[in-house]
Amino acid sequence: MTSTSQSPPACKVVLASSIAKGLLEEINEGLRALPKPPLLVGFLANNDPAARMYADWTAKTCKENGFLFDLREVDREEVETYILTANGDPHVDGIIVYYPIFGTRQDQYLQQITDCAKDVEGLSHRYLFNMYQNIRFLDAQKSQKSILPCTPLAIIKILEYLQIYNTILPYGNRLFGHSITIINRSEVVGRPLAALLANDGASVYSVDITGVQQFSRGPSLRHPRHEVIEKEQWTLSDCLPTSDVVISGVPSSDYKIDTSLLREGAVCINFSSEKDPPQNFGPEVKEKASIYVPAIGKVTIVVLLRNLLRIVQNRHINE
Questions:
Q1: Euclidean distance between the first and final Cα of the chain, in Å?
Q2: Catalytic residue among 11, 62, 116, 150
């Protein structure tokens, strides 16, 4: 008589809380080296439930980890004045603005008037320029790292945790050999993320309603920064079968992923916070993926604190 044992599930579900824990240890170590806890000021000037939830998460995480947080709920017509005042307040170490406020180019203007030295979201012009140009430091001595947008950086930290980044390769090339599909090309998450991953060596397919673009540094990483190529007539059915990592976050059931197209053993990450409509990955993703990360919110909040800590550390270097 032979004994049989059941094989373990092929897919490992990794929760954001597990990833955030390791990042918090790094942050708490840096916090202990500061003379006083940093003060983060948040401006909420809308009735968006997602913005409110983000602000509440920020407050909770700051309180739990020894950071000071002051949420200021203001009228949207006055938010510009409040931002400028916080820029000049020496007691304020970091600023976060919960968007959308106007839902127009006015929001972009508000991003640009936030003091670069207090911009924990990494949305000011200098940080965005550095990100797209693959400039990683603020100074010639390479002692001060540039600040990256929170959600794209959170996804990078998740990929590092999952050991998708190959630490044997030189810094800046550690995604070489990986093919990644990102379903989302927003200016807030999808496009910056595609640029960052391509700058780290990946071949990235960026998908939105207009079609598919490929972000890469070319064959053998010959270019110092990413280039973008339009993939005419391409759809998800061309990208997914070749991608070992699939990242999605479009709050629409129109972008629900056909699991049959996924590469066997792909790593799948969902970053949409929307519950209705459902996530782009259905429950059947666990039958095809090797690793599935169903949400990233807790990592994003921790990365926000990491950016705040880095801004304070950069300021001390300048002093």
A1: 76
A2: 150
Q: What is the arrangement of strands in the sheet containing 245-248, beginning at the earlier edge strand?
A: 12-13, 291-293, 267-270, 245-248, 179-183, 203-208, 211-216, 227-231
The pairing of strands 267-270 and 245-248 is parallel
Query: Phi, psi (5° rounding) for residue 56?
Result: -65, -40
Alpha carbon distances (Å) from 7 to 19, 114, 284 = 26, 54, 18
Active-site residue, 150 included: yes
What order of strands is seen across the sheet that includes strand 94-98? 68-73, 39-44, 94-98
Instruction: Identify the CA nearest to 179 among candidates 205, 207, 153.
Output: 205
Report the pLDDT value the prediction gives residue 30, as an integer from 0 to 100. Answer: 94
Strands 211-216 and 227-231: antiparallel
Residues 6+ apart with CB under 8 A from 278: 253, 256
Residue 3: exposure state from Cβ atoms within 10 A (0-12, 13-18, ≥19)? exposed
Cα–Cα distance measured from residue 190 to residue 293, given in angstroms and rounded to the nearest whole number: 17
Give dist(CA 99, CA 270) in Å, integer: 21
pLDDT at 1 over 50: no
pLDDT band at 111 (very low <50, low <70, confident <90, very high): very high
Residues 45-72 have a mean pLDDT of: 94
Q: In this structure, which amino acid lies at residue 104?
A: T
What are 315's two structure tokens?
Answer: 């300021």
